């Protein structure tokens, strides 16, 4: 295996570089990057991670928070009180997080306008004849009949109301042709 270029040459020592400062800054512990805004606002930078999370009622280590018994046959009995249990001083953080988690998720999935137009064109001109659709000149990507059927089904699932209205609008046109 050949050597990388520039590796064999002698490196010059930089006298102007303060290596002690570089080493010290790399060793310094960085503050944790917090994604949740509720935790970020309640965070106290003068306390440790464990202390901050304990005050909010959150667990630092999930394995310690909910211990799993070592033997499956044995049941663990507890009277509900744990020795040295910490007081939750910021319960609003957990309450806000639970409230945010309970909100219904918005459905943001949509199909591209090109795909919708393509599917509508195919249904309008060929009905449910997928082999004809595959031979159509507008089939630019040379989709097979199964691929076209799959695209139409995706359109049906994403926009069921729009699909029903579209099919209903096509039926009078077919009656006039006959």
UniProtKB/TrEMBL annotation:
It comes from Anthoscopus minutus (Southern penduline-tit). Residues 1-21 are annotated as: Disordered. InterPro entries: Ribosome_biogenesis_Nop16 (IPR019002). Belongs to the NOP16 family. Its main location: nucleus. It is found in: Nucleus, Nucleolus. GO terms for biological process: ribosomal large subunit biogenesis. GO terms for cellular component: nucleolus. Pfam families: Nop16. It comes from the Eukaryota. Keywords: Nucleus. This is Nucleolar protein 16.
